[in-house]
Specification:
By secondary structure, the chain is mainly α. It has helices at about 25-40, 45, 65-90, 105-115, 125-140, 165-180, 185-195, 205, 240-250, 260-280, 290-300, 305-320, 330-355, 355-360, 375-390, 395-420, 420-430, 440-445, 450-460, 470-485, 490-500; strands at about 215, 235.
Length: about 500
Amino acid sequence: MAKIDFRSKINWRRRFRSPQSAATEHEILRIFESDRGRIINSPAIRRLQQKTQVFPLERNAAVRTRLTHSLEVQQVGRYIAKEVLSRLKQRKLLESYGLDELTGPFESIVEMACLMHDIGNPPFGHFGEAAINDWFRQRLWPADAASQPLSDDRCIEGALRLREGEESLNDLRRKVRQDVCHFEGNAQGIRLVHTLMRMNLTWAQVGCILKYTRPAWWRGETPATHSYLMKKPGYYFAEEAYVNRLRKELDLAPYNRFPLTWIMEAADDISYCVADLEDAVEKRIFSIEQLYQHLYDAWGEHQKGSLFSLVVENAWEKSRSNSLKHSAEDQFFMYLRVNTLNKLVPYAAQRFIDNLPQVFCGDFNHALLEDDSDCSQLLELYKSVAVKHVFSHPDVEQLELQGYRVISGLLDIYQPLLKLSQRDFSELVEKDRLRHLPIESRLFHKLSTRHRLAYVEAVNKLERQAAEFPIMEYYYRCRLIQDYISGMTDLYAWDEYRRLMAVE
């Protein structure tokens, strides 16, 4: 087992214009303060204020958006990080673990990762992801070489069509097709930070948001040793070289995770479980009386002194004893949050410490709050009640279906750009407008400058005479469309769809 020394993980260097040295704790902390400024002032963070947490297109400001959720996750992440450091300090382990001068960066990395953890999410959350993936799966040429290509005008297989006698190129086609059909918010977050926003964050800060370590083009079973860490795509083919460099800089074996990512993940798990229930009450999906009964029924056996009685029943009793009846809802959720944090944060911190050899190495194949403990059971209780009574509510399902249709509809509208030949699209990119392509020219003008530049830069790095060029050009064109639509806010996507469909 490798020696635990966080100085090898909290890497303060950057890919571009990295400072040559940072000899003191103060100098290193200033570098991570620069990261904080870059993140907080980024457009990607601001857009979270109009992206869905649970309820799309919500006008009630008391109901959470991705931004308010991320701020709450940031606070919980800070709390867990401080708890970890406090416990290590009590055991006089900070110095032996190389953390005695890195407590500030340790906290800052966790906090900013928590704030950034949702920046890659598309409009309408997971239904937006599903819409993007379904659309591309249905319109790309089938992976089976024996299959017939789609015959209708929905087909956009382009350069990704498998061809006899081109087995090496067919392997590349399968790889990029798999990659394009596995859009995922976490992978898009890595792409945003590095490729699209060019934030040039420290290696440690980016490492902390690489939540899953499976490449999007992965096919087949994942290793049992990394089944949890690789359960979702974590990065795209386009960022493969960057992630390989990231692993080298952070001394991470393939498919291993950065140690502090487990804290960010636990903070998210703790935050959203209570928040989703509170938002449901705010939306009048159920009352707090009904919520308490749902929780009570779902817990099962009730014994005095159980975690349920210490957290949920305690919050219920305290909120009932308040003489101001109208504040019962606020009081209940305040006590529920406090009680939940007071139990789960110390538990998550202790799990981090107890499993530190594997966590530090990066192959701890579990979440911190995923075991057979009462704390894990409490989180599962919140999740199960939300799934059964919130996410399946007709109003929520209708909004999710509307979001799915909006994203699918926008992709239909921009489909002409994907159906252009490589020659025509290259000419359009170069000249910005082509008289014989009036629709495509106008659609191209609507794409953001940032996304177009990322496409141009990627294509310019390719060897145009190489056999792989048409495949990779088409891959980056698909990414261009996904980047643009996934970067929209819920409201902008909704308005843009209505405008382009001429329904207003």
